Amino acid sequence: MALSAPALVAGHARAAILTADGELLSLASTDAAAALRTMRPPLVVHAPATFRRLGLKAGAPALDLLELFAFVLPAKPVAPTPRGLALALDLRPPATLEDAAALLPDIAAALLHRLRAAATVPLNAHALGIADRMGRAGWLWAPWVRDMLPPQATPGTDGFRPWRRLPEWEELPPPPPPSSHPVAPAEARARLAAILGPGAEQRPGQADYADAVSAAFAPREAEGTPHLVLAEAGTGTGKTLGYIAPASLWAERNHGPVWISTYTKHLQRQIDAELTRLFPDPAERRRRVVVRKGRENYLCLLNLEDAISGVLGGGGQRLIPLALLARWVAATADGDLQGGDLPGWFNELFGTTATLGLADRRGECIHGACPHYRKCFIEHTIRRARTADLVVANHALVMTQAALGGLDDAVVPTRYVFDEGHHVFEAADSAFAAEISGAEGAELRRWLLGAEGGLSRARGLKRRLDELVVGDKALETPLDAILTAARALPGPGWSQRLTEPPAPERAAGIPGARNPFEVFLSAIRAQIMARVQDERSALYSEEVDAFPVTDAVQDAAPALARALGRLAEPLRTLIRRLGEKLDAEADALDTTTRERIEAALRALQRRALDPLNIWISMLTTLSEPDKEPGEHPTFVHFLVLERREGQDRDATYARHHLDPTRPFAITLGGPAHGLLVTSATLRDSSADAEAGWDAAEARIGAPHLQSTPYRAALGSPFDYARQTRCFLVTDVTTDLAALAAAYRTLFLAAGGGGLGLFTAISRLKAVHARIAPALEEAGIQLLAQHIDPMDNATLVDIFRTEENSCLLGTDAMRDGVDVPGRALRLVVFERVPWPRPDILHRERRIHLSGGDTTGYDDRIARLRLRQAFGRLIRTATDRGVFVLLDRRMPTRLMSAFPPGVHVIRTGLAEAVRQTAAFIHEHQEGWVG
Ligand code: SF4
Known about the structure:
By secondary structure, the protein is α/β, with parallel strands linked by helices. It has 34 helices and 23 strands. It has a 7-stranded parallel sheet, sandwiched between helices. A hairpin with a 2-residue loop joins strand 13 (about 635-645) and strand 14. It is globular. Iron/sulfur cluster binds near residues 301 and 376. Iron/sulfur cluster (SF4) binds near residues 302, 370 and 378.
């Protein structure tokens, strides 16, 4: 069956169309949009982004090659561009829009050919049945896909039940505690050499690093004193394999896991990829390494089954993403929906309802009562993690696990590696903070009562516990009391009632009146409005100090505390009685029921009672006498009014630890036996080395431990003087037009390959709007966080793949982009990244700076500049230019840049000229 569709590739201002007759057209976007109206649905790559660039509505019919890719090669990563697809399929990558348009039919043919070649593999056993159904739901690829597949005896709907063919996990006995044999420095070096192999690039610093960090794996000498190693390893040291060497040796020798924690899910995958050097055999790697994330990241098979049942009877186009997801379930390694092997662009194509909406995001798992329990991706991963050597996790999960005593894992590790250790402070800040907000309250109400009206299928507590409690008066009574008391939590439509004045006397007993939670929300909103500095800025979120509280808050807080107490009481009773049932009926309970009760106990405690206890204590604090000015607080309390699109959406009472590393050290550091905290940027590079270490130790909570930290620093092997140029531009004002002109000319001078970093989303958007057409005109694709409908990992994948593209981003891009080679040859930073001047920062700079508030701010800014600069050079062959467009940059921050970097203060024109010359001169120096 011939594929006679036009092919379309769109840039920001123009597009290329290969017509069905083979004519190649280069058109302005508006002309291309007009031409499309007279054509058949075109071949495209990433339909939403393509149509958006042409100013067309998303949802127009198209043959999206990404959908075909997801069908043919589910769970295979690919950058969602013509070039990305070409590279994945071993086709010649296109150089221009026109080349790309001409290539799309070849990409389609290559994919269809692959499907035909693999038509008989198990993955495709039910492919025809799926394609059939997708065709009936309007999937345009269906006729071609069906053509590639042999007729099947029963092309029915079995492909929509992929869980039937998933493996089951086996329960294993609890692992015994690990032993405590040390790893000698020489052994760490030898293990590293073995991982690298004989022909590997020699990096002397890497062996020294492995040697130094082995100290974190020594046997603990006394309770509460873990071996604490702070190891700074300049970019290019090879720290990942450097710590994997002693960590893997320790795990093997002691039969216990080492948990490696990093900051983001994307970085978890990067570490996992490096572990292929240690375990090249995929089966062995799967056994010994587990990437572990929170439950909300994994597909819940029960949710998938529910969703599929809803569409098989005639769910129209909603069937298409679920069908592709069913294909992915059959191919995925671990069912991880975020940053795993489900491509990030899947959400962009189909929305999150068909993906993240099917994860266990609200703690509604029914565990042993679930028909898929033995095949569940989450349960599989948890069990694999119990016996793995290395568990690759993220800071948020590890800290929550420590705070709650093991979460689902049942074991608390004793050895940790914190990679990206400079993020420990902010990760702890999030993990140990608490807030009372409308959204949190409504979420708890939903968890307890289930969906109240609307289309949601959310199960409430009664439905989840019914089989356990029905007929048992001792359990039914507290459950009924819980469901009654839960009505004090924000009800449907609470957000619209937020702006009503607090009127506590109306709170009780009047039908339709606000409940105590809603009255409290209105009261804190009113306090925020009374205390904000600038009442005109009604577009943005606001925050004010919680103390001193207004009279309305003073009244509303205890009323809410009492209402929450009435909810907590029966929860405690139910938990106690379920525990008693476990004990009393130990002989009679079957395994499934026992597991269900245990899961219910955990969920009731963590999902409901723990937050309620914290909320009640916070509300009690609001009723206490005001703090004295200047008093050193344990917590910082503040109120936030969240606004979106000019509307008040939520009001929050937030409580953060002044020093969040304190609970981090107490809950995680104290029980641990060894902690390695490592990063390329642990220390501030100010003149005083000792002060730099002291500040680094304070940022990870070392002063709260009894251990004496072991310090190690390995410089970067890169020759920054030779490999980089660094300009501080002195004649660009803060005016947006001037800022945009600077970005445009610099990106053009580099011919693309530029990463533009911003400290504010609004300025990023303004600059993007001004420079996109000119860059497009020059053949440079401009990608942007907060603008392109793609997640950060997808944007970085495209940026890495499309060598002459540019990328604009904010903090996440500043800290998390790893793009070696020519694809990143220029970093342009808009302004000095000072800490955000909010209430939390105000308190921390007063109380944690030792009196040197300016020095405190400077340290944070310097570390961020170091991070930004660190994006530029990732390998010994990289070359790059760093440009800061903030002429107010104080000289005292210049030490942020690595030794050897000479900062040239100059005007924009000269910076542009030298950037072009440097990049042109080193054109040949790059490797891939
Ligand atoms: S066990 Fe829980 S998370 Fe797993 S599939 Fe069943 S309901 Fe979903």
